[in-house]
C-alpha cells in the first residue's frame, strides 16, 4: 500500500465530535473538502452541529465569511454515527476520539480494514504517539499524528509527528493538507511525550504552579505577567481552564507514564481541582469562577 498524494484527497473523515473533532471538521469543510464527522453518540453530534452553525453565524455577522460560503461549508459537513460507511470512501482520516489507547487501537484496526488502500490515517492525540496505533491499522507507513490546538478554528499550529515507519509521502501529504486547511504545520521528526507545544506549555505551567504554591504571586498576577511582560494571549492559569484541568492532568499522567520523571507528575493542586469537579471553563469553575 502507499499513501495517496494531496490530489487524491476529496473526502476527509474526522472521528470524534468533541471540541477538537468538530472544529477540525469545520476547518476542513471551510477549506473546500467534503467532510464526515463521526461519533458514537448522537447527542454529541447534535451539539457539535449546533455549535458550528452558531460559530458560522457569528463569522457571517462579523463579515469574516459570506453567508453563501458559510452555508456551502456547512453543506459539505456531514454528521454520522456510521463509521463503516464513512470510512469506505475516506481519503484522509483524522481521529480525535477519546484519549484511550484501547479505543484508538480498535478504531485504527477498523480503519485499516475499511478505508481505501491509499487513505492516510492520522491521530490528533497529544499524548499517544501514532506508533501505538500504526500496527493495528495494517498500514503503518500511512499513519502519523496530526495534532491541532484548541480552539482548532483559530490556532495556526498543527504538529505533524512521524513515527519510525511513517513514509515520506505520508508526511508530505499531511503537511500539505494542513497548509490547505490554512494552518502553519511543523514537523516533529521523532515521537517524544508532549511533542513540542505541550512540552513548552507544560514548562510554563509547572513554573506558574510552583510560583503560586509558594505564595510568590496571585493567580491573577502570574497570568497578567505572562500577558503583559511576555505577550502571551492568555496566562497559564487561564489557559489551563480553557484546555480543561482534566485534560492537563491526563497529559501529565501520560507523560509521567512514559518518562518516569518525577518532574512530570501531575501537580497536586490540579488533582485537587479535578477531584472537586472543577475542570475549568466547561464546568463553570477551575482556577477561576466563570459562573458569575
Ligand atoms: N472556538 C472558536 N473560535 C474561538 C473560540 C473558540 N472556543 N474562542 C475564541 N474564538 C475566536 C473568536 O471568535 C475570535 O474570532 P475573530 O478574530 O474572527 O473575531 C478570535 O478567536 C479571537 O477571540 P477573542 O477576540 O474573543 O479573544 P482573544 O483575542 O483572547 O482570543 C484565543 C482567544 C484565540 C483563544 C486566544 O486567547 C489564544 O490564542 N489563547 C491561547 C490558546 C492556546 O494556547 N491554545 C493551545 C492550547 S494547548 C492545546 O490545545 C494542545 C492540546 O493537546 C491540549
Automatic annotation (TrEMBL):
Example of a GO MF term: NAD+ binding
**What positions belong to coiled-coil segments?**
none
Biological processes annotated in GO: fatty acid metabolic process
InterPro entries the record matches: 3-OHacyl-CoA_DH, 3-OHacyl-CoA_DH_NAD-bd, 3HC_DH_C, 6-PGluconate_DH-like_C_sf, 6PGD_dom2, NAD(P)-bd_dom_sf
Using the record's annotation, list all stretches that form the 3-hydroxyacyl-CoA dehydrogenase C-terminal domain.
194-290
- Which Gene3D superfamilies does the protein's record reference? N-(1-d-carboxylethyl)-l-norvaline Dehydrogenase, domain 2 (1.10.1040.10), NAD(P)-binding Rossmann-like Domain (3.40.50.720)
> Which family does the UniProt entry place this protein in?
Belongs to the 3-hydroxyacyl-CoA dehydrogenase family.
Could you identify this protein by its name?
3-hydroxyacyl-CoA dehydrogenase
What is the native source organism of this protein?
Answer: Arthrobacter crystallopoietes BAB-32
Amino acid at each position: 500500500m502507499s499513501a495517496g498524494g494531496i490530489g487524491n484527497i476529496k473526502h476527509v473523515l474526522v472521528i470524534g465530535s468533541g471540541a477538537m473533532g468538530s472544529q477540525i471538521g469545520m476547518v476542513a469543510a471551510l477549506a473546500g473538502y467534503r467532510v464526515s464527522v463521526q461519533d458514537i453518540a448522537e447527542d454529541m453530534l447534535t451539539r457539535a452541529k449546533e455549535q458550528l452553525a452558531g460559530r458560522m453565524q457569528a463569522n457571517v455577522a462579523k463579515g469574516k465569511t459570506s453567508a453563501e460560503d458559510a452555508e456551502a461549508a456547512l453543506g459539505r459537513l456531514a454528521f454520522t454515527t456510521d463509521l463503516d460507511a464513512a470510512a469506505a470512501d475516506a481519503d484522509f482520516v483524522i481521529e480525535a476520539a477519546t484519549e484511550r489507547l484501547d479505543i484508538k487501537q480498535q478504531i485504527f484496526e477498523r480503519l485499516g480494514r475499511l478505508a481505501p488502500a491509499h487513505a492516510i490515517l492520522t491521530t490528533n492525540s497529544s499524548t499517544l504517539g501514532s506508533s501505538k496505533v500504526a500496527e493495528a491499522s495494517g498500514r503503518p507507513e500511512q499513519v502519523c499524528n496530526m495534532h491541532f490546538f484548541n480552539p482548532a478554528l483559530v490556532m495556526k499550529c498543527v504538529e505533524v509527528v512521524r513515527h519510525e515507519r511513517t513514509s515520506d509521502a505520508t508526511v508530505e501529504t499531511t503537511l500539505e493538507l494542513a497548509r490547505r486547511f490554512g494552518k502553519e504545520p511543523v514537523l516533529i521528526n521523532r515521537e517524544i511525550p508532549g511533542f513540542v507545544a505541550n512540552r513548552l506549555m507544560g514548562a510554563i505551567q509547572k513554573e506558574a504552579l510552583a510560583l503560586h504554591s509558594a505564595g510568590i504571586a496571585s493567580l491573577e498576577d502570574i497570568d497578567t505577567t505572562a500577558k503583559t511582560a511576555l505577550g502571551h494571549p492568555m496566562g497559564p492559569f487561564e489557559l489551563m481552564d480553557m484546555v480543561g484541568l482534566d485534560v492537563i492532568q491526563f497529559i501529565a499522567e501520560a507523560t509521567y507514564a512514559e518518562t518516569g520523571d518525577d518532574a512530570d507528575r501531575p501537580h497536586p493542586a490540579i488533582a485537587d481541582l479535578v477531584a472537586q469537579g472543577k475542570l475549568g471553563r466547561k464546568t463553570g469553575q477551575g482556577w477561576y469562577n466563570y459562573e458569575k
